[in-house]
Amino acid sequence: MSSTTPDNQVHWFRHSSPYINAHRGRTFVVMLAGELLDGPALATLIHDLALLNSLGIKLVLVHGARPQISARLAESGIESTFEQHMRITDAAALDGVMAAVGALRLKLEGLFSMGLANSPMHNASIRLVSGNFVVAKPVGVRNGFDYQHTGEVRRIDVDAIRQQHTAGNVVLLSPVGCSPTGELFNVNAEEVASTAAIALGADKLILMGNRLRLADGNDNLLRELSPQDAGKLLAEDLFQDSDIDRQLTAACHAASNGVGRAHLLDASVDGALIKELFTRDGCGTLVTRETYETVRGARIEDVGGILELIEPLEADGTLVRRSRELLETEIHRFAITERDGMVIACAALYPFPDDKTGELACVAVHPSYRKGERGAQLLGYVERRAREQGLQSLFVLTTLTAHWFQQQGFESAGVEALPGARQSLYNWQRNSKVFVKLL
To answer: Which one of 109, 233, 262, 267 is least enclosed by Cβ atoms within 10 Å?
Structure first.
C-alpha cells in the first residue's frame, strides 16, 4: 500500500480479491466521529464509503455531532454541561442539537450526491436515506441530575433499514432519536452505532475518529483485543481521552453481543478504511471474540496455502520438495498457523512409534510474520501432538536453520541418533544436520 508503482498496485489488487468476495452482501455499520465531519479528509472518507457500497456491502452510516452541537450552543450563549460523558440537554439546548444534526445530515447527503466526471464517485448514483430509524427513551434523573432531553436508544427499526438495503440504499443514522410520544432526544452516537450493529446482526462495526489509535506503553499499536481485554483497559482508565473511552466501550459492547468484529480506526491515516478491510493486517485495532489467528491441524483445503508458503523455501534448498499429490496424502501430518484465512506457518510430524520418537519436518513461516514467535507457537502445538501419541522425543534434519532449533531446545546429534527406518533414507548429498529434543 505504501508504493504507488503499477506493479505493486496490481499485486495489492489481486490480493484484495478474497476480501472483496468475503465482504459482498455483508452488513457494516460505520461511525464517523463528529470532528471528522468538519475535517479535510471527509470527502475522501465519503469516496471510500461509496467504494464499499459499489462492492455490494450493505452500509449503515452513523455520524457524531458533539463538537458541532457544542459550537451551536456556544454561539447561542448556552453553556454545555456534561455528566458521565453525556450532555444534559434542556429545551434550549435541544434546538441547538437539532440545528447541528440537521446541518450535518444535509452536508452528508450533498457529499454522497457528488458525481463529477473527475471525482471517484462519477456515475455512483448513491441514495443516502435517513429517517426515524432510531427509537429513543429519556435517560431521566440519575445521581440527582435531570438529563431532560438526553436519551438512550430504546430500539432500532431493523425492518425499515433492511428494506432500504434491499433497494441498494445507504442508511444514515443521526444521534437524535424519536420516542413513541413524538418527542426528540439527543442520544450518544457511539450507542446508536453499537446498538444498530447488534440489532442488525452486522458483520462489522467500524468506529472512525481523529487520532483514534490504541497503543501499549511502548507506543506499539494494539492490533487485536478480546472484549475482556478491552474491558480491562477501560477499567484501568488508561485512555484519558473520553472519545476513545466511548468508542472502545461501543466496540466492546458490540463484540460481546454478537457482532463478529469491531474495528477502531484512526481516520488521520490516509485510506485507513480500505487498508483495514482489504489487507491482511489492517491498520487499526480489532475487538473480537473470534480468534483472528489460530494454530490447528491442517485440512485438505489448506494444501494450496501450504504449497504457496513452502515453494520459495524449496526453490532455495531450505526444504525438500513436496508434490501436491504427496502433500494431499500427508496433510493429516501437518499443523498450520492460519491468520484471517491465510496459511502463514506450517510444520509436519512424522511419528516413529516403535522408537518413541517423531520427525519434525517442513517447518516454514511466512517472511512477513517471522518476528512474532509464531514458529515457537507452532512447535509447541506439534510437541503437544507428539506427547499425545506417546512420543518421547523429536528430531529434525536441517541445513540452514540450526541456530533456531537450538534456541528451541534441540541438541546436536549424529545420524546414528535417527531411527533405523529414517537412517536408511538419509540424503548424504544434502548432508543435513541432525538435532534432537527430549519431550
So the answer is: 109
Q: Measured between alpha carbons, how far is 359 from 405 in angstroms, rounded to an integer? A: 13
Q: 45 with 273: CB under 8 angstroms? A: yes
Distance, CA of 206 to CA of 215 (rounded, Å) = 18
Domain-wise residue ranges, the chain: 16-288, 293-438
Rounded Cα gap, residues 98 and 263, in angstroms: 29
Q: Which CATH architecture has domain 293-438?
A: 3-Layer(aba) Sandwich (3.40)
16-288 and 293-438 in the same fold: no
Q: What is the pTM of this model?
A: 0.74
Q: pLDDT tens track of the chain, all 439 residues?
A: 445 566 777 877 777 888 898 899 999 999 999 999 999 889 999 999 999 999 999 999 999 999 999 999 999 999 888 887 788 999 999 999 999 999 999 999 999 887 644 555 566 678 999 999 999 999 989 888 888 999 999 999 999 999 999 999 999 999 999 999 899 999 999 999 999 999 999 999 999 999 899 888 788 888 889 888 888 888 887 666 568 889 999 999 999 999 989 999 999 999 999 999 998 778 999 998 877 778 999 999 999 999 999 999 988 888 888 999 999 999 999 999 998 788 999 999 999 999 999 999 999 999 888 876 889 989 999 999 999 999 999 999 998 888 999 989 999 999 999 999 899 888 888 889 999 999 9
What is d(CA 206, CA 213) in angstroms, rounded to the nearest whole number? 13
User: Do 250 and 187 meet the contact criterion of CB atoms below 8 Å apart?
Assistant: no
Cα–Cα distance for residue pair 155/133, rounded to 1 Å: 9
- Tell me the β-bridge partners of 346: 336, 364
